[in-house]
Specification:
Length: about 220
């Protein structure tokens, strides 16, 4: 596993960069909404955003990435499109907010690309990491919450939403299981930044653990 030049959980600046990761249907959106609302009630200067997307240009890139008709997309094309989305999002949204001392909550970031493209698509960790570190000037989140669930539970949740699956969701279960394992490996290698939470627990309980960690960092 390549070295990461991280800000890490110990770096208490005024700004705070929080990311949520996990397979489809792991409950990231619910947790992000709960955390965002909680921090707003605490009068914290906070924004919630997401990848792919989060900017006008990014939403266009997202549309291309998730279009189920683009089955022929090469893993390299996919990797650089996620990176292009990240570049726009990073310089338009994330960096200005952190520079202004805000708390930024982001649904997915570099760990998604490491797990989905680096491992499950077999593009390779080092290439993905070099490309993304070049884009973000080596910036990693202060803390990353991994909502860990077996993919079959995530898939069940997706099916309950009753909309058709996008290009990534439509991948085989084995692909998503590889993503889950890749996340677990990343969490093991970078424990200074990762917090692994059991995504099958009640949302209120998960939120409680999230708040415990975030409160520590807010000081
Ligand atoms: P979402 O459903 O969480 O909005 O994410 C859209 C899909 O994009 C999801 O299947 C995960 C995938 N993804 C990657 O494969 N690589 C990435 O770098 C990111 C940010 C997302």
């Amino acid at each position: 596993m390549p070295e990461q030049n991280q800000r890490g959980k110990g770096s208490k600046g005024k700004s705070l960069f929080i990311t949520f990761e996990g397979v489809e249907g792991s409950g990231k959106t619910t947790q992000i909404n709960m955390l965002h609302a909680h921090l707003l009630r605490m009068k914290v200067d906070v924004i919630a955003t997401h990848e792919p997307g989060g900017t006008l240009i990014g939403e266009e890139i997202r549309r291309v990435l998730l279009d189920p008709t683009f089955k022929q997309m090469h893993p390299m094309t996919e990797t650089v499109l996620y990176a292009a989305d990240r570049a726009q999002h990073f310089y338009e949204v994330i960096k200005p907010a952190l520079d202004a001392g805000k708390v930024v909550i982001c649904d997915r970031f570099i760990d998604s690309t490491l797990a989905y493209q680096g491992v499950a698509r077999r593009v390779g960790m080092e290439g993905v990491q070099n490309l993304n570190e070049w884009i973000t000037d080596d910036l990693y989140p202060d803390i990353t919450f991994l909502l860990d669930i077996p993919y079959r539970i995530g898939l069940k949740r997706l099916q309950e939403r009753k909309r058709s699956l996008d290009r990534m969701e439509d991948e085989e279960s084995s692909f998503h299981e590889q993503v889950r394992e890749a996340y677990q490996t990343l969490a093991k290698f970078y424990p200074q930044r990762f917090v692994v939470l059991n995504g099958t627990e009640k949302p209120e309980n998960i939120h409680h653990y999230v708040m415990q960690e975030v409160t520590k960092l807010l000081g």
